[in-house]
Design a protein that fits this description.
178 residues, single chain, Four Helix Bundle (Hemerythrin (Met), subunit A)
Length: 178
């Protein structure tokens, strides 16, 4: 899970750095062009992100990540982060609910269709909990990142949760290749 998400974030950040520099960002004189090439290969050389998603899916659906989230939720956070912890816990609840929706569907096509969304849910929830833990230990290093990331994660969790909740198992035919 971590490798896949790290490579995805590297790609997003490298893309943004090219955008900031405009056309000259893709020239050899700029480091961002090399970072962009390097970031792109990370999501390919150890197996595509999709293959990593498939590899992570059994751990997602069997409760490995839910258990990890429970353990992280049980950890102490600084008093000023309690409201952030509650937001992260609400995201974890959506993740667990999405997993239950997948299990209740009892349909391999549905699980395959939702696998990337479940993966993204797991990654955003785990990352949020880890940043809360790290910000409690070293606020000077992690507080700003934690606050920014939590806002991003909430939006991403809502998007993926809503997808999983809205897919009609009876309409799976619509998702098959023609």
């Amino acid at each position: 899970l971590a490798k896949g998400m790290n490579s995805e974030y590297a790609n997003l950040n490298a893309y943004d750095s090219i955008q900031v520099h405009g056309g000259s960002g893709s020239m050899l004189e700029y480091a961002c062009q090399r970072l962009y090439r390097d970031a792109r290969i990370t999501s390919i050389y150890e197996g595509t992100t999709q293959l990593q998603t498939v590899a992570a899916l059994p751990h997602i659906t069997t409760g490995t990540y839910s258990q990890m989230l429970e353990e992280l939720e049980a950890g102490e956070v600084a008093a000023e982060y309690e409201s952030l912890k509650a937001r992260a816990k609400a995201m974890d609840a959506k993740f667990n609910e999405a997993i239950e929706v997948g299990k209740a569907a009892n349909n391999n096509e549905f699980t395959a269709l939702c696998s990337r969304h479940l993966y993204e849910l797991a990654a955003n929830c785990v990352m949020s909990q880890l940043l809360l833990r790290d910000a409690t230990k070293a606020p000077e290093l992690f507080e700003k990142s934690m606050k920014v990331y939590l806002n991003l994660a909430e939006a991403e969790v809502a998007k993926h949760y809503n997808f999983v909740k809205s897919v009609d198992v009876e309409a799976m035919e619509s998702y098959r290749k023609a």
